[in-house]
């Protein structure tokens, strides 16, 4: 057992010193994006893939240079598929959809996938497969094969795997596999599920939010302080999802308070972490247009059930729940146009490596300058290609181990 394996995994805040993180180095799945499918696959443009990989490598290198252990999703996936037949079955059955492929093709595809080695299978499960790439004989009795175009997907690619924040998150010593709201992302959770179930690194790790009763995405979940969780409700996480998550974390004694934060249902603010992230134990960077209008419902665990208050101003409700006098907002103080541009480019989506130390996209010059003026150390990364999926450093990282606060 390595020393890392001997150290307890878990996360109880947004800012405790980051020790281990899960990233996904983008690969062949980004090469599937075309002007015809990019909207449906939730990208705003077509990234230059080699450059996106360079940018991602630099992000991973920066984290390593700061002492963070970087786990890569593809490596974990291939290792889990190598070790476990059950993992292979799980990955294959999530990727083969008989409703879309028909039974003939579904059976042929599943039989083929069972013969593929673990590395190749990991690639197929992430990058997908087109009808042209089907290695099995003529269409025969499959009407579906006869009627599809060669470039259509037999297995849909998962370009948004890059945003590891959304398909799982840790709360305390448990991991939650999320229920992703949109069809383009739903299968991502089958891969995080199989990794956490079958990779030896995660042996014995227990689950949070197991019921999956309604959509909850990790980008909407902020661990404001030990025991206090904020959950954004908007385009992705639903009110039912937030309610179910609250009940689940109360039952498992992972939190005593959940703040449910309504956010506008539009692409620019698809998750709470697109408008607000923590940069210190008592400080957030927030999109100025909403900083003082955001509200929250406060759900508390009580001896005889739960209580719900609100909605009240978010900053006050958060400070009260966290037991601090005030939650500092780093006042980006920007004019409307600059603030809107930098919010769109994920200026508010920072990843904290420790209290007061964050990773941010370099392009958000004004927001970064304001953060530094407030005493925050900003480690800049390039993101011109990575950002075309509309996600920043927080979206691209799932902390697995932070020092407890
Ligand atoms: N937490 C996040 O905000 N993640 C970014 C997700 C971007 C992705 N293209 C999506 O639309 O889901």
How would you characterize the overall build of this protein?
With 405 residues, the chain is an alpha/beta fold. The protein has a domain at 55-72 and 159-402: L-arginine/glycine Amidinotransferase, Chain A (5-stranded Propeller), CATH 3.75.10.10. It has helices spanning 3-6, 49-65, 73-83, 85-95, 98-115, 118-127, 143-147, 164-167, 183-186, 188-198, 239-251, 288-291, 314-322, 336-344, 365-373, and strands spanning 18-23, 69-72, 129-130, 153-155, 168-171, 174-177, 206-208, 221-225, 228-233, 257-262, 276-280, 283-286, 295-302, 305-313, 328-330, 351-354, 357-361, 377-381, 398-402. A 5-stranded mixed β-sheet has the order 8-9-10-13-14. Strands 2-1-19 form a 3-stranded mixed β-sheet. α3 (73-83) packs across α4 (85-95), α3 (73-83) crosses α6 (118-127) and α4 runs antiparallel to α10. The longest helix has 18 residues, at 98-115. The chain starts with a helix and ends with a strand. It binds citrulline. Residues 42, 160, 163, 165-166, 185, 219, 270-271, 273-274, 389-391, 395 line the site of citrulline (CIR).
